[in-house]
Amino acid sequence: MKLYYAPGACSLAVHIALREVGATFDLVKVDLARHTTEGGANFLDISPRGYVPLLELNDRSRHTEGAALLQYVADLDPAQALIGKPGSRERMAVLQWLTFISTELHKGFSPWLWHKETADSTRQAVKAKLAVRFAEMEAVLAHSEFLAGAYSVADAYGFTILNWANLLGIPLTPYPQVQAWMARVAARPAVQAALRAEGLAP
């Protein structure tokens, strides 16, 4: 397999999941501003949507959309420990969190807070909505070490997206349980390995 990624982008979640399940894969770094790979290829020729993550499977087929890729990667583990068995309550809980993160968090941060031209009123409205979502997570994490109970691909995704708060100067200090959860996820060997591989950790 081959994962096309940009350091610290949402592709980090898929990168973490691949390492968690012990998959064999290659990494291809993408410059999203220039739409080129580190080898000089035009990324738009590879992925017309122009964004990461993109996962190329062994049959050369190419697939996008982080939440879908996280489900696929989690199922590569025969035990399905990162997502739960089909039809199980564990899987339903993980899928609910994946959907919540993709719609309520990911699309809150991006594109609005990354674009300089976004109006201040829009920025404030987005931050207010994110604060409500952070508070929801705070309440859940006060009673659970991880989002869906046991560690799952939802935690890898949530960690990746909430890490953007640090990059954007959005304080998480009002949410100590969220901060503690972030630290637990960050301490995992697969997460550390992914961060180092992307140049995000020493």
How would you describe the overall organization of this protein?
With 202 residues, the protein is of the alpha+beta class. Helix content is 50%, strand content 9%. The chain contains 8 helices and 5 strands, in the order βαββαββαααααα. A hairpin with a 5-residue loop joins strand 4 (54-56) and strand 5. The two termini are 26 Å apart.
What is the secondary structure topology, with strand pairs?
Elements: E1 2-5, H1 11-20, E2 26-31, E3 36-37, H2 43-46, E4 54-56, E5 62-64, H3 66-74, H4 89-109, H5 120-141, H6 153-168, H7 176-186, H8 189-197
Parallel strand pairs: 1-2
Antiparallel strand pairs: 1-4, 2-3, 4-5
Properties at a glance:
single chain; 202 residues; alpha+beta; five-stranded mixed sheet
Q: Largest beta sheet, briefly?
A: 5 strands, mixed
The end-to-end span amounts to 26 Å
Mean pLDDT: 96
How are strands sequenced across the largest beta sheet? 3-2-1-4-5
Shape verdict:
globular
Report the sheet-strand fraction.
5-15%
Secondary-structure element string: EHEEHEEHHHHHH
**Uncertain spans, ≥5 residues at pLDDT below 50?**
none
Considering DSSP H and I runs of 4 or more, what fraction of the residues is helical?
A: 40-55%
* Rg, Å, rounded: 17 Å
